[in-house]
Amino acid sequence: LLPKNKKVGILTIHKPSLKEEHLKAANVPLNTPIIGTENGKEFSRVILNDEKEMDIDLAKEDHLDAVEELLKNNSNIGAIVMECTNMSPFAADIRKKFNLPVFNIYTFIEWFQSGLLPTRFNPDHDDPRK
Q: What is the dihedral of CA 23, 27, 30, 31, to 10 degrees?
């Protein structure tokens, strides 16, 4: 999907936990740029400590700050992959601010489901999803 001069960057909840063996198992190049949200104010702490409440605005800032740093240090990023399932609600904010495609488990499931239940464009036929 990306031009040859662009790379995917990975956004994770805790960079030290994303080990070389994980990347190898997923066939991800070891030189893939990775950043975590663990230095933020809210998101990683709340999720990793299983806290009951989260300040959504602060969590969003954690994501935007991390991606900003990732892009500052890697000018060739052409897309972001969110490693953590809990990051999906912040994908649109990242897309809007940085104008990059953002992929995560939610977008993967949407893509997969669209193949199982394609949108019907002919209004004369019943929608099979109903």
A: -120
Please determine, for residue 125, whether its predicted confidence score (pLDDT) is greater than 70.
no
Alpha-carbon gap, residue 49 to 67, rounded angstroms:
22
Query: What three-state secondary structure class fits 36?
Result: strand
* Paired tokens of 94: 């990242």
- Tell me the pTM: 0.86
Question: If residue 129 lies in a helix (H) or strand (E), which one and from where to where?
Answer: none
DSSP H helical ranges for 26-104: 43-48, 56-73, 91-98
Structure tokens at 46: 């709340």
Q: The tokens 């949108």 sit on which residue?
A: 119
